[in-house]
Amino acid sequence: MSRNFELLNQMGKAVVLQPEVEARPVPAADPSSFLPGLELDGIARDEITKLVHRTFLLAGADGPRRVVFTSTESGNGGTWVCAHAGEMLASQVGRSVCIVDCNLRYPSMHKQFMVKNHHGLADALVGEGPIRQYATQLRPNLWLVSCGGSCDSALGLLTSDRMRRRVAELSAEFDYVLFDVAPLNASNHGVVLGHLADGVVIVLKAHASRRDSTRETIQGLQASKVKVLGAVLNQRTFPIPEKIYNRL
After folding, report:
1. Mean pLDDT of the chain
2. How many structural domains comprise the chain?
3. Residues 6+ away with beta carbon under 8 Å from 201
4. Cα 187 to Cα 173: distance, rounded to the nearest angstrom
5. How far apart are CA 81 and CA 72, in angstroms?
6. Residue at 211 is within a domain
7. 30-34, 41-45, 171-175, 239-243 — which one is most confidently predicted on average?
8. DSSP string, 187-207
9. Predicted confidence band of residue 235 (pLDDT cuts 50, 70, 90)
10. Which residue, among 197, 201, 163, has the nearest Cα to 79 in the 3D structure?
11. Is the pLDDT confidence value at 34 over 60?
Protein backbone atom coordinates (compact mmCIF):
# COMPACT_ATOMS: atom_id res chain seq x y z
CA MET A 1 0.00 0.00 0.00
CA SER A 2 1.43 3.37 -0.97
CA ARG A 3 1.11 6.89 0.30
CA ASN A 4 -2.41 8.04 -0.41
CA PHE A 5 -2.88 11.35 -2.11
CA GLU A 6 -5.61 13.71 -3.27
CA LEU A 7 -6.00 14.38 -6.99
CA LEU A 8 -8.44 17.14 -6.23
CA ASN A 9 -9.07 19.39 -3.22
CA GLN A 10 -6.18 19.52 -0.77
CA MET A 11 -7.43 18.87 2.73
CA GLY A 12 -4.81 21.03 4.48
CA LYS A 13 -3.15 20.34 7.83
CA ALA A 14 -6.12 20.54 10.16
CA VAL A 15 -6.03 18.68 13.45
CA VAL A 16 -7.66 15.26 13.34
CA LEU A 17 -11.02 15.43 15.08
CA GLN A 18 -13.58 12.80 15.97
CA PRO A 19 -16.98 13.61 14.46
CA GLU A 20 -19.16 15.21 17.11
CA VAL A 21 -22.28 13.24 16.30
CA GLU A 22 -24.55 11.17 18.45
CA ALA A 23 -23.53 7.55 18.19
CA ARG A 24 -26.21 4.96 17.48
CA PRO A 25 -26.32 2.24 20.12
CA VAL A 26 -24.35 -0.87 19.18
CA PRO A 27 -26.29 -4.01 20.08
CA ALA A 28 -24.54 -6.49 22.31
CA ALA A 29 -23.15 -9.59 20.63
CA ASP A 30 -21.24 -12.67 21.64
CA PRO A 31 -17.51 -11.76 21.42
CA SER A 32 -16.69 -15.39 20.64
CA SER A 33 -18.47 -14.98 17.30
CA PHE A 34 -16.16 -12.20 16.10
CA LEU A 35 -13.54 -13.00 13.48
CA PRO A 36 -9.83 -12.10 13.75
CA GLY A 37 -8.85 -8.69 12.41
CA LEU A 38 -7.39 -8.28 8.94
CA GLU A 39 -3.62 -8.42 8.72
CA LEU A 40 -2.12 -4.98 8.16
CA ASP A 41 1.43 -4.04 9.13
CA GLY A 42 4.06 -1.37 8.64
CA ILE A 43 3.64 1.11 5.81
CA ALA A 44 0.25 -0.30 4.83
CA ARG A 45 -1.19 0.38 8.29
CA ASP A 46 0.22 3.92 8.30
CA GLU A 47 -1.27 4.73 4.92
CA ILE A 48 -4.69 3.23 5.66
CA THR A 49 -4.73 5.24 8.89
CA LYS A 50 -3.97 8.45 6.96
CA LEU A 51 -6.65 7.62 4.40
CA VAL A 52 -9.27 7.13 7.11
CA HIS A 53 -8.32 10.33 8.92
CA ARG A 54 -8.30 12.47 5.79
CA THR A 55 -11.46 10.99 4.30
CA PHE A 56 -13.70 10.62 7.34
CA LEU A 57 -12.37 12.51 10.35
CA LEU A 58 -10.65 15.77 9.39
CA ALA A 59 -13.90 17.61 8.78
CA GLY A 60 -15.28 16.69 12.20
CA ALA A 61 -19.08 16.54 12.41
CA ASP A 62 -19.34 17.64 8.77
CA GLY A 63 -17.22 14.76 7.50
CA PRO A 64 -18.61 12.23 5.01
CA ARG A 65 -20.59 9.34 6.40
CA ARG A 66 -21.42 7.41 3.21
CA VAL A 67 -18.45 6.83 0.90
CA VAL A 68 -18.11 4.86 -2.33
CA PHE A 69 -14.80 3.08 -2.94
CA THR A 70 -14.17 2.30 -6.59
CA SER A 71 -11.27 2.08 -9.02
CA THR A 72 -10.46 3.15 -12.54
CA GLU A 73 -10.08 -0.46 -13.67
CA SER A 74 -10.11 -3.99 -12.26
CA GLY A 75 -7.02 -5.23 -10.46
CA ASN A 76 -6.35 -1.95 -8.64
CA GLY A 77 -7.18 -3.38 -5.23
CA GLY A 78 -10.30 -1.34 -4.53
CA THR A 79 -11.93 -4.07 -2.44
CA TRP A 80 -8.77 -4.50 -0.35
CA VAL A 81 -8.58 -0.77 0.34
CA CYS A 82 -12.28 -0.55 1.21
CA ALA A 83 -12.10 -3.53 3.58
CA HIS A 84 -9.08 -2.23 5.48
CA ALA A 85 -10.40 1.34 5.56
CA GLY A 86 -13.66 0.07 7.06
CA GLU A 87 -11.91 -1.97 9.71
CA MET A 88 -9.53 0.88 10.55
CA LEU A 89 -12.41 3.35 10.81
CA ALA A 90 -14.27 1.00 13.16
CA SER A 91 -11.19 0.83 15.38
CA GLN A 92 -10.83 4.64 15.44
CA VAL A 93 -14.42 5.60 16.30
CA GLY A 94 -16.82 4.19 18.84
CA ARG A 95 -19.61 4.15 16.29
CA SER A 96 -21.16 1.62 13.96
CA VAL A 97 -19.49 1.02 10.58
CA CYS A 98 -20.95 -1.08 7.76
CA ILE A 99 -19.17 -2.22 4.60
CA VAL A 100 -21.42 -3.07 1.65
CA ASP A 101 -20.32 -5.17 -1.32
CA CYS A 102 -22.01 -3.59 -4.34
CA ASN A 103 -19.96 -5.44 -6.95
CA LEU A 104 -22.67 -7.95 -7.78
CA ARG A 105 -20.94 -9.25 -10.90
CA TYR A 106 -17.59 -10.05 -9.27
CA PRO A 107 -18.08 -10.03 -5.48
CA SER A 108 -15.04 -10.55 -3.28
CA MET A 109 -15.52 -8.57 -0.07
CA HIS A 110 -16.68 -11.71 1.77
CA LYS A 111 -13.34 -13.31 0.88
CA GLN A 112 -11.47 -10.46 2.55
CA PHE A 113 -13.21 -11.26 5.85
CA MET A 114 -13.56 -15.01 5.19
CA VAL A 115 -17.32 -15.16 5.70
CA LYS A 116 -20.10 -16.82 3.72
CA ASN A 117 -21.82 -14.99 0.87
CA HIS A 118 -25.26 -16.50 0.91
CA HIS A 119 -27.34 -13.65 2.35
CA GLY A 120 -26.53 -10.03 1.49
CA LEU A 121 -27.24 -6.96 -0.63
CA ALA A 122 -28.65 -8.80 -3.65
CA ASP A 123 -31.10 -10.64 -1.40
CA ALA A 124 -32.07 -7.36 0.28
CA LEU A 125 -32.82 -5.83 -3.11
CA VAL A 126 -35.16 -8.64 -4.19
CA GLY A 127 -36.48 -9.51 -0.74
CA GLU A 128 -38.12 -7.86 2.24
CA GLY A 129 -37.21 -7.28 5.86
CA PRO A 130 -34.95 -4.75 7.59
CA ILE A 131 -31.47 -4.23 6.16
CA ARG A 132 -29.79 -5.23 9.41
CA GLN A 133 -30.99 -8.81 8.99
CA TYR A 134 -28.80 -9.01 5.87
CA ALA A 135 -25.69 -7.78 7.73
CA THR A 136 -23.05 -9.94 9.40
CA GLN A 137 -21.42 -8.51 12.51
CA LEU A 138 -17.64 -8.89 12.25
CA ARG A 139 -16.45 -6.84 15.23
CA PRO A 140 -18.14 -5.02 18.14
CA ASN A 141 -18.97 -2.05 15.84
CA LEU A 142 -18.23 -3.39 12.34
CA TRP A 143 -20.75 -5.03 10.02
CA LEU A 144 -20.60 -6.45 6.50
CA VAL A 145 -23.41 -6.66 3.97
CA SER A 146 -21.90 -9.09 1.49
CA CYS A 147 -22.99 -9.35 -2.12
CA GLY A 148 -25.48 -12.11 -1.43
CA GLY A 149 -26.80 -15.05 -3.40
CA SER A 150 -29.31 -13.45 -5.78
CA CYS A 151 -26.84 -11.51 -7.92
CA ASP A 152 -28.26 -12.26 -11.37
CA SER A 153 -31.76 -11.09 -10.51
CA ALA A 154 -30.55 -8.09 -8.49
CA LEU A 155 -27.90 -6.66 -10.81
CA GLY A 156 -30.29 -4.29 -12.53
CA LEU A 157 -31.66 -3.12 -9.18
CA LEU A 158 -28.41 -1.38 -8.21
CA THR A 159 -29.59 1.67 -10.13
CA SER A 160 -33.22 1.48 -9.00
CA ASP A 161 -35.35 3.25 -6.41
CA ARG A 162 -35.17 0.01 -4.43
CA MET A 163 -31.42 0.54 -4.01
CA ARG A 164 -32.00 4.16 -3.07
CA ARG A 165 -34.33 3.07 -0.27
CA ARG A 166 -31.87 0.46 0.95
CA VAL A 167 -29.08 3.07 1.03
CA ALA A 168 -31.32 5.36 3.07
CA GLU A 169 -32.01 2.47 5.41
CA LEU A 170 -28.30 1.71 5.77
CA SER A 171 -27.66 5.36 6.59
CA ALA A 172 -30.32 5.26 9.29
CA GLU A 173 -29.00 2.03 10.80
CA PHE A 174 -25.24 2.69 10.76
CA ASP A 175 -23.12 5.75 11.52
CA TYR A 176 -20.74 5.09 8.61
CA VAL A 177 -21.37 3.15 5.39
CA LEU A 178 -18.60 2.19 2.93
CA PHE A 179 -19.67 0.90 -0.48
CA ASP A 180 -17.33 -1.33 -2.48
CA VAL A 181 -18.33 -0.70 -6.11
CA ALA A 182 -17.28 -2.19 -9.45
CA PRO A 183 -14.51 -0.41 -11.41
CA LEU A 184 -15.57 2.69 -13.32
CA ASN A 185 -14.47 1.24 -16.66
CA ALA A 186 -16.78 -1.74 -16.18
CA SER A 187 -20.06 -0.06 -15.19
CA ASN A 188 -21.71 3.20 -14.23
CA HIS A 189 -22.51 1.99 -10.73
CA GLY A 190 -19.79 4.18 -9.22
CA VAL A 191 -21.50 7.25 -10.66
CA VAL A 192 -25.03 6.16 -9.69
CA LEU A 193 -24.09 5.20 -6.13
CA GLY A 194 -21.84 8.24 -5.90
CA HIS A 195 -24.98 10.37 -6.14
CA LEU A 196 -26.44 8.49 -3.17
CA ALA A 197 -23.27 8.89 -1.10
CA ASP A 198 -21.29 11.83 0.26
CA GLY A 199 -18.45 11.21 -2.17
CA VAL A 200 -16.15 8.78 -3.92
CA VAL A 201 -12.62 7.54 -3.22
CA ILE A 202 -10.82 6.30 -6.35
CA VAL A 203 -8.23 3.54 -6.10
CA LEU A 204 -5.40 3.64 -8.65
CA LYS A 205 -2.63 1.13 -9.29
CA ALA A 206 0.99 2.21 -9.32
CA HIS A 207 2.77 1.79 -12.67
CA ALA A 208 -0.54 0.83 -14.30
CA SER A 209 -3.11 3.61 -13.98
CA ARG A 210 -2.43 6.27 -16.61
CA ARG A 211 -2.50 9.93 -15.69
CA ASP A 212 -4.57 10.98 -18.71
CA SER A 213 -7.25 8.32 -18.22
CA THR A 214 -7.37 9.07 -14.49
CA ARG A 215 -7.89 12.77 -15.20
CA GLU A 216 -10.67 11.93 -17.65
CA THR A 217 -12.32 9.69 -15.06
CA ILE A 218 -12.26 12.43 -12.44
CA GLN A 219 -13.58 15.00 -14.90
CA GLY A 220 -16.37 12.60 -15.81
CA LEU A 221 -17.35 12.21 -12.16
CA GLN A 222 -17.28 15.98 -11.70
CA ALA A 223 -19.43 16.49 -14.78
CA SER A 224 -21.91 14.01 -13.27
CA LYS A 225 -21.97 16.06 -10.04
CA VAL A 226 -20.27 13.32 -8.02
CA LYS A 227 -17.88 14.56 -5.35
CA VAL A 228 -14.40 13.02 -5.46
CA LEU A 229 -13.03 12.91 -1.91
CA GLY A 230 -9.57 11.75 -2.95
CA ALA A 231 -7.53 8.97 -4.52
CA VAL A 232 -5.31 6.16 -3.32
CA LEU A 233 -2.24 5.03 -5.26
CA ASN A 234 -2.11 1.34 -4.44
CA GLN A 235 0.67 -1.25 -4.78
CA ARG A 236 3.46 1.29 -4.98
CA THR A 237 6.97 0.07 -4.18
CA PHE A 238 9.53 2.09 -2.24
CA PRO A 239 13.26 2.14 -3.06
CA ILE A 240 14.19 2.60 0.62
CA PRO A 241 13.88 0.19 3.57
CA GLU A 242 10.67 0.42 5.58
CA LYS A 243 12.48 1.30 8.82
CA ILE A 244 13.99 4.38 7.16
CA TYR A 245 10.68 5.27 5.45
CA ASN A 246 8.89 5.24 8.82
CA ARG A 247 11.27 7.93 10.10
CA LEU A 248 10.57 10.32 7.24
Report:
1. 80
2. 1
3. 51, 55, 67, 68, 69, 70, 81, 85, 228, 229, 230, 231, 232
4. 28
5. 14
6. yes
7. 171-175
8. -SHHHHHHHHSSEEEEEEETT
9. low
10. 201
11. no
